[in-house]
Amino acid sequence: MPRPLTRVMLPVTFRPVTDPQTARPITVTSPLTAPVFSPSAVVASCVGFVLIGALQALYGPSIPAFREEFGLSPSAAGLGLSAHFVGGVAGVLLFDRLYGRIGNRRILGASYLLMAVGAAGFALAQSWPVALCAALFAGLGFGGIDYGLNQLFAVGFGRRSTAMLNILNAHFGVGAILGPALIGGVGAEHYPAVFLGFALANLPLLLCLSGVRNQVPAPTGEVPKSGDGVLVRSLGSVLAVFVALYVLHVGIEAGVGGWEPTHLETVGYGAGVAATATSVYWLMMTAGRFLVAPLALRFSAQAIITVSCAGMTVCLLLAAVPGLAPYAYAGVGLFIAPIFPTGLPWLNRAAPGARRAGAVVIAASMVGGVAAGPALGKAIEWSGIRAVPLLLCAVSALCLAATLWLIRATRPR
């Protein structure tokens, strides 16, 4: 008789997944477990982005009141927004260090509290140095929310992450539109009440953090190896070009927002038309992110960013024609809109082993916004106001070149 088969059970050893940057273990969860965000947490996150968009946009319209209250020069008054951005960069880098160590809820909760405390301190400050310190604290919270939610949305919705990131960042634009409108409605002299109300608006969002999964979401891919995806030896180059893309496109975004009114007035438009056209530019940027969300479910991030950079370059070239300038600038807003949120999931897929890559490009985008003003101003001193769209067109062409290089460098092999 044949001998019966015997099933032998061999022990299986599971090796923990570690972060290649810190060698610390990563909590990896199955895709079948609870989602990263509950529906209420998604709504609260969008409200949070409305608030950070409004906070960033509140400083500019309030400058006349700052100057009168504290006796400031224009450059000193502008330090309020600079302190906010410095805090934002520090917040991104600080909370990136904590990401995966203390839990997502604590990171976001601390960020909302810091932003609320900073905004309240700015409203109640009796001296300009105290106000600047408060703006720095508010910026820390701003950076933590910007980084934390972008990072979690980039990995928390699977193939829908690009669409959800565009929707999330569109709400930033909603806040950026509402903030100045609110200051204009109540008057710049009442800015303390607006900042204080803004601080209080952060607190209810703390109640929705229970809908955010506390563990770090599972990595979206393996650490790249030679011959598989992005080569290890080229990973540094890929990250450097992603950083360049973010710095350059945010520089264009800030450059158009800052110089469009001056350029339009220089080529013959009235101040009212120039101001309205600039508002339309920001409105189109917000609308563009809502519009691209369904497209992100059908087209790749690479295709969307390529079309965005090409369209942005053409529109900036057309903006050099005075009769087309207001409409061309609106087109720039529409095309530039998807680049920031759409690039993050692409970056995570291209370099899943470099977890800090998201923090680096988000921090770089803030640096690009700060550096754009002085750099473009110096270039305008050499070439004149009429050259603004052509200067920005050259920068946009660099964005397109960087995108095409990244497509080739990150193509699976």
The unreliable regions are 5-22, 25-33, 219-233
Number of helices: 14
* Content-based structural category: mainly alpha
**Total number of strands:** 0
- What is the overall silhouette? globular
Classify the helix fraction into a percent range: over 70%
Q: Main beta sheet, described?
A: none
**Averaged pLDDT, please?**
83
Elements, N to C (H/E): HHHHHHHHHHHHHH
* Spatial separation of the terminal alpha carbons: 53 Å
- The fraction of residues in strands falls at under 5%
**Rg over alpha carbons:** 23 Å
What is the compact description of this entry?
This protein has 413 residues and is an all-alpha fold.
List keywords for this structure.
single chain, 413 residues, mainly alpha
Describe the structure.
- The chain has 413 residues and is mainly α.
- It is 71% helix and 0% strand.
- Helix 10 (301-318) packs antiparallel against helix 12.
- It is globular.
- It starts with 38 loop residues before the first helix and ends with a helix.
